[in-house]
Design brief:
alpha/beta; nine-stranded mixed β-sheet; 18 strands; single chain
Amino acid sequence: MRKYQTMSPRLLVVGDLMIDHYLWGKTERISPEAPVPVIDVQKETEVLGGAGNVVNNLVALGAKVEVASVIGPDDNGARLRKMLEDLEVGTKALVAEEGRSTTRKSRVIASHQQVVRFDSETRQEITAQSEKALLNKVVSLLDEGVQTVLISDYGKGVLTDTLTQGVITEAKRRGIRVMVDPKGRDYTKYRGATAITPNKKEAAEATGIAIADEASLKEAGFKLKNELELERALITLSEEGMAIFGETMRVIPTVAREVYDVTGAGDTVIATLGFVRACGGEIDEAARIANAAAAVVVGKLGSATATWDEIIAYENTLHESTTEHRIKTGEALAKSVEHLKNEGKTIVFTNGCFDILHLGHVKYLEKAKSFGDVLIVGVNSDDSVRRLKGPERPVNSEFDRAYLLAALDAVDFVTIFEEDTPYELIKIVQPDVLVKGGDYEGKEVVGSDIAKEVKLVDFVKGKSTTGIIENIRK
């Protein structure tokens, strides 16, 4: 798999582009004007959505990407174009259609829950004039060395029957692979593509076959392949993996460690399949890697991407415990934090010895996690604890302490540090929120000059490691 890290195939994404807009905040009261929550907005982010998420995934894998779509001649269209250009994605196949609105989906997220979504968009089919202009631009890109075409249909009107068939026909004429992530119940416009990648529910709706067992899965898969004249049909099966229909049916299994959000998993699958196939990889290998990439992104919140480092790390840890996977070195933690921040996550950091884990520790960490999306815990090494607590401490070794912390639901990552203070570690993490115990009231908190905010949490009265040790001695 590592060979793909050095490859940069050129792929074309054709489909419905949009902006995913997020307003992040907290709610602590109900409006006096109506029975609705009042959201205190603290952060606002925008990311590429729809076919743009396929683009994001390809860029994360290292591909050279061209994009073809129809947008509106509006502010959202200008922002979308700028977002693509910032990723060094080719935009010369973007067509602006008069009277059309660029799709923008705005979501209000309060205390980690989506409260409401409102959309601004045009969903009717693009005009015949736009179809012709877009197809001409696609043909030009096909003649300039594009290796694979990915069609990402979000049902917003760009992928008309005429345009879709035109793209497939022109690509096949040049011997270029076309892979489709479909939408809707009628798949006839995708006829002649190289492959199609619906999920199980989509495949059942498109074929009219209730997929309940291996026999019905096989019937649906081969119906898609034969009726649409595909080289292969692929049906994604969520945590069960992916079924490939060629001369026979083969199921490529996967194992997802933790599923937080399946948003965008289909985008990751088609992007990874397309990337590996464009590099010359066989379909089974491409499916196995796509499964691993999807397993990475469903462990994140919101539409996400998977890098080669993350995919390789995932495969390497399939036989390790989930708990051990959460314990990171400083270098690995820095990479994880970078990805999390790029996804707009709020990072919370706290630290301590955590010797003899007890109720007070757990409640403290649960409260710390409530301040953001991701909780990172720094644990003093054994030598560090001895310098701070004396030669008889710690009772439990550094790995034992880190492992127990990593097993807690509230904790996302744990890392061990050697210094007496976590200042160097805080410099690596650059947390949004730094959490310390209530006994720091009025005192200087190490790292407060780095974190955006400091929160103090009161300890549970009567719960401490020192008290437990004294009770044991008595």
